[in-house]
Amino acid sequence: MSENKLSSNGKYALELQDLHCFYGSFRAVKDVSLKIERQKITAFIGPSGCGKSTVLRSLNRMNDLIPGAYVKGKILYHGRNLYDSSVDPVEVRRRIGMVFQKPNPFPKSIYENVAWGARINGFKGNMDDLVEQSLRQAALWDEVKDKLQQSGLGLSGGQQQRLCIARAIAVKPDIILMDEPCSALDPIATLKIEDLMRELVQNYTIVIVTHNMQQAARASDYTAYYLMDRNDRAGALVEYGPTQELFTNPKDKRTEDYITGRFG
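Now predict its structure.
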């Protein structure tokens, strides 16, 4: 992926055009077209099985790792289709990082958890500075600065999730994907992650999948509502727009039924 392709200052970080996601012969997601704005938080909401995590994982080609998975359509990143045969999926994942539902620190020191990705990507700068900067950006530095050589597995769940965010930040991505990052956390840790997202969005584009509609309403700038088509069981995009508008004045009756609790 050439650098000149990545110097775009356009309004959108990603553009999905007629995206269909398949697992073998099963079409899990169909007809998704939307534009994700740069340096905003976009939330994907909807009931279980509606395809929101599948769409999220397609944004950095994580679905490539599942045997039989493939997509049709385009995902444009700075004008280039991420699924073009000339694009390196490893490079895609460096530029579009991911934080998973369950905190998954490596069984290494806190320091090595943050340094690892940067090291394998050939980082040549001052590693101590990078680790500190990443932990500061993840709002974790003050809690761990005196125990950097202790195992990341010894941290609380909320701290582990912020460590995973620091690990994602350390490789200098452009976009951070978060797949239900708070579902395993208590309410206090959840609010810390939400506050952190509001800080990070000053420098990154964030896309989050969440089952928590209150979280989407609190934390996101834009929201996409997905629903499974009962006829073919494929997830489809029902409505997408500014979060406040979607929650207060949804255009589609199905969206209104979901956010008011009459469905799902």
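The chain has one domain: 3-259.
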